Amino acid sequence: MPPAMPVLADDFFPALDERHDADDDPHSPPPLGAVTDGIKGRQTRSTPQPRLAAVGPQADAAQAQPGTQPGDGLLAVSNAAMAGISAVGLGFALAGRFLRIPRLPASIQGAVVALDHQPAVRRVLEEHIGKRATDTALGLAATAANALAGAPAMVAVDLAINSFRTAEARADARARSRREPVLARLTGRPDALPAPRVEPRSLSPVERHLQRNSWIQAIGAAAVGAAGRDANLAGNAALVTVPKAVRSTRESFAATLGRGLADRDEALQIDPDSLRRLDEIDVVILDPRVLRSDRVRLVRLRGAGEKDLTVWERAQAMLGDDDLRPGWHPVVGPRRSNGWSATEALFAPAPHPLAAATLAETQRAEVQVVSVDDPDGLGELRPAFDEIVALAGDSIEDTLLEAVRTYQQDGRSVAVVSSSATRALSAADLGVGILPERDDHPHPLGADLVVDDLAGVWRLLHAIPAAKEASRRGIELSTGATALGSLSLIPTVRGRGPEAVAVGAAAGLVSGYWSARSVLGAPLPRPVPVDEWHAMSVEQVRNALAATSDPAAAPEAAAPKQRGMLRQFVVAVREELADPLTPVLGLGATATAILGSPIDAGLVCSVLVSNAFLAAGQRLSTELRLNRLLAEQIPPAWKVTLGPDGTRERVQVLPEQLRRGDLIEVGPDDVVPVDARLVELEKLEVDEASLTGESLPVTKQIDATPGAEVAERRCMLFAGTTVVAGTGLALVTAVGPDTEVRRAADLVTSRHSDIGLGHQLGQITNRIWPLSMVAGGLVSALGVLRGTALQRAAADSVGVAVAAVPEGMPVVATLAQHASAQRLTNSGVLVRVPRSVEALGRVDVVCFDKTGTLSENRLQVTEVRTVAEHSREELLRCAARATPPAKDHGHADATDAAIVAAAESVPGALAAEPADAHLPFRSGRPFAASVFGTELTIKGAPEVVLAASMDVPAELYDLVEQLAADGLRVLAVARRDLDDEQLRSLSADADDPDAQLNALTKLCDDGLTLLGFVGISDTPRAGSAGLLAELHRRQVPVRMITGDHPTTGRAIARKMGLPVTPEQVITGMEWEALSAKEQERAVAERVVFARMSPANKVQVVQALERSGKVSAMVGDGANDAAAIRAATVGIGIVAQGSDAAHTAADVVLLDGKI
């Protein structure tokens, strides 16, 4: 007897546990039921029961309540039996219709089916016989009633639901069979597991709908039955208000997801209902220990040698000690007696390679993410958390449990992810346990779901928004089916009400299935490398890459997949139809057609479809135009290979063919294809403005730069930057999406759907729809009172309700936006997303990148300060003569080009003949010098030139600091006259080519006459200051986000009219130390965000969006692309930046005019 199976299971498996505990052989393997009961340590959470502190078979028997134990196998049998009974019922219903067998009255059918969807009735039954037995009993009764009443469509839906459940249970049983050796380790039982929750939680949207619907069902059926004095009419009224689509959608989604996870061994359900609670979760608490990897890394130094590179290298060498544990350790080595003993190194666990992706997925899931302030430090992961709970005492587990209870007291539904916090897992509404890799590690007892690693956690988090969307769609389908089915209660309207409910439920089955398949089909995130290559020596980098590089051949370059135009158009139309007005108008059109006005329904549908076609065509046209304007050519890379005899060979490859550990060569004008660690270089300078926003070229070096921000990692090459001068060899450390510039894209959740007039109309419609329904009901009632036919009165009611929906407005809005986009195009503005035109009018705050956006990324001399009697012309002449000669394409260094441009108006500044000798800039020599005849001219770093100059007043040092505080790059200019002996020392020697340079360097060490200083800065873009002033006049706040130094950023902001105090400036390092809530406060108070990486820029925009601001992001470089995509309105500038910014933007400024 299938209905009794769940009850038998409750008696059978505690008995098995007793038999196992009484077994004389302690080494005999436990039955799987006992194993999973040991993991679970509690019953299904749908009916929470008091936790018993006792353990052992007696406690288990006392605690057991009617319900199927996880993993017992009878769940699959029970579901299969229910599916079989549903199949028999379907056959009987079809035969009854064909043979015209007398049917069960609708009054009885409606009463039985309604009981299955009354939460109060189910709650009473579950308290007495358990959830599974209640599901079985009510399911059998409903199936029998529908079969006897000749409703094959309703029975077919029941058959489909039970088939989904059966497939899920069988897949789960197979997974348990495969994993029984693993589950056998989890037989230990904790002394006491707390109850799932003490405080009642807020009702989920599904529960609110079911509760509300139960009252509508009861009152509506009674009212209709009383009005018509017909019990069968009351039964039909109860049937049409059955929220069957809610259950079918939810069950289809959860069962498909559970089957897929089990077949892939990605997750194992200990509680069979765990996946059905995903849509209720709004808080995720992550145990900080699951975000760590087994590797230890060096974080920072403190003490006497914290800035000594040798001390850093020695501390890095300590990582080779297998016994090294996290915490502070003294740096030891051969120089201990010279001060290393006073230096300590902080070592901490490196983040798990999937930690960043997991946290990013919580943002996509739109849940609050919480963790504990780990003593070992959360490091760069801190900004991803909405709240970080202070550690209570020394116990992370106690703190996790306290956090769970705190959020539950606020009515929140809490999920906990941990590998060992047993009590927190048990107390949570959904406990996700991560199995340990080693048998001697703690196990996740008390979990509802068990996964192997963070990849499984990521998949579950990825399913949360899909689960919420499936529930929302089920509610919409149920509401629509009820509304349409109610029309069939009118005697003159053809059709039966329950058929609409069955159609809605079938649509829910399909919708839930495809939603789950989309979750399962999503590719797992890439593990993010956690190595700090910039902090390692070249030898350490070589060793680390040799240990981690894949010895397989480099992957073949894959051709990008291009969608056909027809498919692109279909996808665009589908996206346009995903509008808030579409369900309302579709429901109204269908109701109109049912009531006998198909022409009106066709007109409404034609409006919907034509609007979608028009908007989709406009979008594709814009994309094609942009692709033609911004066709990007991928530059090749030069891979260096070593031949058998040690010779180097250069091979040209595509960037996609490179892999970690490869050796590449870069030269002048090359675009760096990957992230790489330099191992050799020759006078290498790189323009990193596209990544860091730094206007000046960066002089590269081989020595490590530990503890440095991205903009100061001079030993690294970054993808997307451009080599200005020199050459270099580098080891590839990251390719493709793992590069610094593209890693920020993983932080972006999705494009905003709440922009545009369509969304605003949808919100308005949602507010007035209930009022219009009431008005329609009053019209219908008045019509009936005046003797109008019921069908006509209902049609008038539907007409009034639908008339409240502005179905013509989407077309009008689309046409208006299209016209605005066309006018803007004539002004050099390309609108890729038409809805953004309207959203621009609602922007609350505008974020600007500095370099290339507010400025032109072109250096110019903006300040000339002379000393004593020296003139401005003399200073510029000497500065220009100290620059190297220009090449065919101009000066390689932007600073030299700016000085030469400033000196063009000075007679004799630009020598017609080359210098007799020239000393160029290089790493470790921050100046350049030239000799023309008997005159030596030099320009360079003020601290070096001032030290070599004669009679320098002390106030000049203050002048240098003042110029630097104004955001200028300051160069000191000096000269000296050479005598004959000094000139002879500069004679070129063919046998010793470095002799001349060495002699010239020596002449620059002293005896110089200081002429003054030049200040160089980026050129402000025309109109930038006026734009900022206009925004200020309109009371629109501005945020400047730059990779520049804080002093430079503040100075530029002041020059452009933004009054900024030091307290309104924050750096990237300070930003990364904040939690998400603290970041929201920071974006409200700070104006200049300096030394910001691409990931930091995304976080700034996201913090603004989370705080309720409609933000716009304006940028031009690859480092701005992810932030542009994260903003409500993204604006890209076509200048010298990367095409990534343009393709991510909603609006593109084609002429570069801001």
TrEMBL record:
> Is ATP-binding one of the keywords UniProt gives this record?
no
**GO CC term, one of those recorded:** plasma membrane
Domain called P-type ATPase A: residue spans: 650-748
Where does this protein chiefly localize?
Answer: membrane
Q: Where is the signal peptide?
A: none
Q: How does it sit in the membrane?
A: Multi-pass membrane protein
InterPro entries per the UniProt record, alphabetical: ATPase_P-typ_cyto_dom_N, ATPase_P-typ_TM_dom_sf, ATPase_P-typ_transduc_dom_A_sf, ATPase_P-type_domA, HAD-like_sf, HAD_sf, P_typ_ATPase, P_typ_ATPase_HD_dom
**Which molecular function terms from Gene Ontology are attached?**
ATP binding; ATP hydrolysis activity; P-type calcium transporter activity
Q: Where is this region: Disordered?
A: 1-50
Q: Where is the composition biased (Basic and acidic residues)?
A: 16-27
Output the superkingdom of the source species: Bacteria
Among SUPFAM superfamilies, the record links this protein to: Calcium ATPase, transduction domain A, Calcium ATPase, transmembrane domain M, HAD-like, Metal cation-transporting ATPase, ATP-binding domain N
Which cellular compartments is it found in?
Cell membrane
PANTHER family reported in the protein's UniProt record = CATION TRANSPORTING ATPASE, CATION-TRANSPORTING ATPASE I-RELATED
Q: Know the name of this protein? A: Haloacid dehalogenase
